[in-house]
Prior knowledge:
The chain is an alpha+beta fold. The chain is 36% helix and 23% strand. It has one domain: 2-Layer Sandwich (Beta-Lactamase), CATH 3.30.450.40. Helix 1 (4-14) runs antiparallel to helix 2, helix 1 (4-14) runs parallel beside helix 4 (154-181) and helix 2 runs antiparallel to helix 4. The protein is globular. It starts with a helix and ends with a helix.
Amino acid sequence: MKNIDQLNKELASLxxxxxxxxxKADKALEIMGxxxxxxxxxxxxxxxxxxxxxxxxxxxxxPRELATKGTIPVxxxxxxxxxxxxxxxxxxxxxxxxxRHITFFEGIKFKEDxxxxxxxxxxxxxxxxxxxxxxxxxxxKGPDLSQCGPPFGQADLEALAQFCxxxxxxxxxxxxxxxxxxx
Length: 183
């Protein structure tokens, strides 16, 4: 398994001096998604990466299939991702279905083998300087808590925070280029 230092070196090789073009941005996002899947032993659809646009709403970056399915306003009171933007704090939910949350995106099926609803979740902000630029969510899905995999622990939350710290410097550049392309 790749460690965080190896991830950093791999991303640095794609983004010399912080510059990155479209093809390399896609590769960097693919590397980050794969790292998170491997590190947390989750499936492709259990990793979500959002970018914050105009400090107003969140857009999916990963999984790509959800990028065109809608956005999440930062003031959405039932959105865990939106709350993470405003609190700038990482959180762990081992009973996610007991939390009030937006369920719309859970209902979108883009792969045949999606396992069920989100039962457990880690959520952490991506921070560049003093600003939140996005959010990362790692989930465990299943029909119920007993069939979704082990609970997340403090070590998992710390590992996600470390990923966010490492990835933010690259994602800041990638997100800026995405925002420029879409304006």
